[in-house]
Amino acid sequence: MRAQGGVTWAELNRETAAHGLAVTGGAISTTGIAGLTLGGGLGWLMAKHGLAADNLVAVELVDADGEIVHVSEGSDSDLFWALRGGGGNFGIAASLEYRLHPLSMVTGGLIVHPVEAAGEMLRFYRDAAAATSDDLTVFAAVVHAPDGSGTKIAGMLVFHTGTPEEAERDLAPFKEWGSPLMVEIGPMPYQVMNTILDDAYPPGLQNYWLSSFTSGISDGLIEVMVDRFASVPSPMTGILLEHFHGAVCRVPVEATAVPHREEGWNLVLPSVWADPADTEANVAWTRDTFAAFAPHLVARRWLNYLADDQGDDAVRDAYGPNYERLVELKRRYDPENVFRHNHNIAP
What we know:
single chain, alpha+beta, Uridine Diphospho-n-acetylenolpyruvylglucosamine Reductase, domain 3, Vanillyl-alcohol Oxidase, Chain A, domain 3, 2 domains, 7-stranded antiparallel sheet, 4-stranded antiparallel sheet, 11 helices, 13 strands, globular
């Protein structure tokens, strides 16, 4: 599949679905393909097929000299390595080519519990998700009800790529646990699954996101999660746990610029609010909450979730052991730091 850099995942998914094919494309369909892929590209299919960057075949790139170059493993393996996770540091992706996988129907949806059950649900989730197959991905969160009421809830987002029978078997423990307020799970086209969070993150709102990988889901982390969510200032903000397992974790750390190949969880604070006058309160809550989680986090950050005010230390944490090689390649391909309006890798 070849698509230009301005394409969104909704558009790409529409075209691949016509052929019964798909590739890892984030969790929100309004996201642009280029930014997500160059930053690594986590999504529903990462346990089955790896990151978007792991499925990148080639890039038509405008480089720092203004030249248009076709970059692939065969044409320039060093630059191609850097593009798979190096963000916007090495050029402008005019078009991207992806490896696709047979996929049409999946099983997915949402399980909702009362917020009072959040602690117990998260402890159940910690144990149940650890045994999931490559076909099953489950994220957990404390969020607000999607009906606009502002009601706080605890929930699990589930996604399964296997047959309906396999999905029913693997999802049974999650559907049957506790006393859920709602279990809305069923078969759907993959491109529909990629839209189920769209309404929660519409364009045009105020955003300030922070995230970091955890050292596990300890009882202490769960306590912080429940406690901090009680004081959240915006009815559009939640706390999310994204499970990394399966294919994404079987890629060697040094194979791409993305170093995050350990099984575990990425904790995300996606803070969203409508009124710019509320910015100070929402940013303060997000920073304070992130600081409260600090004892339970490790020095690994997901590039595309770094807020704009995150500095050099955060960028280093996003690349870990791959940072020094990226600096060397930046010196080779962009020594004047033309591409610097980003989470910058300084030459």
